Amino acid sequence: MNLKNLTLFSGLLGFVVVALGAWTRLADAGLGCPDWPGCYGFATIPVNPEDIEIANTRYPETPYEVAKAIPEVVHRYFAATLGLFIVGIFLAVNKKQENTKNLRTLSGFLVFWVILQGVFGYLTVSLKLWPQVVTIHLLSGFVTTLIIWIIYFKAKDLGNSDVGHWGFNIKIKRLISIGIVLVGLQIFLGAWTSTNYASLSCFDFPLCQGQILPPANFSEGFNFSQNVGPNYLGGLLDHESRVAIHLTHRLGALVVTVFLIYLIWSLYLEGLKRVPTVLAGVLVFQIGLGISNVIFGLPLLIAVAHNLGGLLLITCLSVLRFRD
Fold first, then answer.
1. What count of other Cβ atoms lies within 10 Å of the Cβ of residue 164?
2. What gap in Å lies between CA 76 and CA 323, rounded to an integer?
3. Maximum average pLDDT range among 54-63, 121-130, 247-256
């Protein structure tokens, strides 16, 4: 498999891994296996009564639930597979001398990053869903995937001077960079909302509990040094703290939307058609998913799709900025 096909497959697999991670988190299956890398001491999930009894004996404080163990194990195996493909990307990049230094650096960093991602996967379980760690683990998965896609487009452009060069001026590049930062912050807020179980703290839209600004505890909602106790499953913050997190995520969405509309319009003024149209489509899709999460009470498939929408948006912006 050549580098272009390898990175294309790995990039698609990255989206799958992020989706499985979101599914695991949203199904409250983050502790479906209380140990790592095994599951109740098994390489896969216990299935027969004898193994289930052994599992419950090993971890009596975390009774075995097959419905929660399945998404956790599936996510782990897909993530491990992606890690192997990333090693393959590194080897493929360094095998050929004609690959650029930039490609070699990116592939080397990607290997380091996926190892770090595995460490945070372990900490997610060992620290029992501490929200700071779970949030970093989620964000790291986004970074892993977008780097793979940048490598894919750089590999695709090798030896072809007619593609991959939009010729953006300094202003547009600066706007795209700002867009990446804003979307990245919004993804963090979304992750913080999810890991603190604040997604349904406002059950109506566009108001929150029938008010523009209901009682909210912002200092506690964003207290990153909080003492969260031995187990964070289900969340430990009070209602007003969760409302603060949810409201901030909504405000962030408004800021990002306004800025991206300006960026899309600026791209149109540069004479581009396809790029801003794709960005506009992804933005509208993501906004619709976010609103649907609130209106329909966080359906699992829509919530997972909302995660993927954020990943798609920041990946598009990153490719626009760093492909050349």
1. 14
2. 30
3. 247-256
One-letter amino acid of 243: V
Q: Is the peptide bond before 215 cis (omega within 30 degrees of 0)?
A: no
Say which of 61, 72, 98, 240 is annotated catalytic.
72
Burial degree of 296 (CB within 10 A; 0-12, 13-18, 19+)? exposed
Q: Which amino acid is at 232?
A: Y
pLDDT at 161 over 70: no
Output the six-digit token pair for 204.
């109506």
Which residues are 227's β-sheet partners? Answer: none
* Model confidence at 278: pLDDT above 60: yes
- Token pair belonging to 130: 């501490």
Which of 181, 139, 159 shows the shortest CA–CA distance to 25? 139
The amino acid present at 195, given as its one-letter code, is T
Domain locations in the chain as residue ranges: 1-163, 166-324
- Enter the tokens of residue 231: 């187990």
What is the per-residue pLDDT for 51?
A: 92
**Cβ-contact 234, 128 below 8 angstroms:** no
Looking at residue 2, its pLDDT comes to: 87
What are the angstrom distances between the C-alpha of 298 and each of 247, 303, 306?
Answer: 16, 6, 10
pLDDT higher than 60, residue 265: yes
- Burial string for 48-75 (b: 16+ CB within 10 Å, else e) reads eeebbeebeeeeeebebeeebbbbbbbb
39, β-bridge pairs: 42
Q: Determine the Cα angle at 11 with ends 20 and 318, to 5°.
A: 105
What is the C-alpha separation between 285 and 45, in angstroms, rounded? Answer: 36
Per the annotation, the verdict on 53 as an active-site residue is no
